[in-house]
Amino acid sequence: MNPHQYQKGQALAILHEMLQQIFNLFRAIISLNGWEETHMEKFLIELHQQLKYLEALMRLQAEQKRDTLGSENLRLQVKIYFQRIRDYLENQDYSTCAWTIVQVEINRCLFFVFRLTGKLSKQGMET
């Protein structure tokens, strides 16, 4: 995905949904191969804080503009993507190999989040 193709409201919705899905994925799994529990807890706390921040931004954006249909379609696409990840893990019996592949995929998602956040930061400076 190209972060420059989305309007601000859509970008906020994508960011929120991606972080929410990542949070849900890792919160639901009690023991993760290769992840220390303290690192996981810190990771989840940071994600939760970012989600709360994005929710506040989304409320402000919703008051200013109405782009809910486009944003909801994008949210659905993200949910479907993460459902495929969960299905893959389940089909692979949550094996170490499957988790390694998922970790790489989550890193790709977080890189996209980083790029999209950078785009939003630049837009915020320009307005």
TrEMBL record:
What does the sequence similarity comment in the record state about its family? Belongs to the alpha/beta interferon family.
This protein's source sits in the domain of life called Eukaryota
| Taxonomy of the source species | Eukaryota, Metazoa, Chordata, Craniata, Vertebrata
Q: Which organism is it from?
A: Eschrichtius robustus (California gray whale)
**Keywords from the named record:** Antiviral defense, Cytokine, Disulfide bond, Secreted, Signal
Entries under SMART domains matching the protein: IFabd
Cell compartments where the protein resides: Secreted
Which residue windows are coiled coil?
none
Q: What is this protein called?
A: Interferon epsilon
Looking up InterPro entries in the UniProt record yields:
4_helix_cytokine-like_core, Interferon_alpha/beta/delta
Task: Give any single GO term for biological process.
Answer: defense response to virus
Gene Ontology CC terms, in alphabetical order: extracellular space
GO molecular function annotations of the record? cytokine activity; cytokine receptor binding
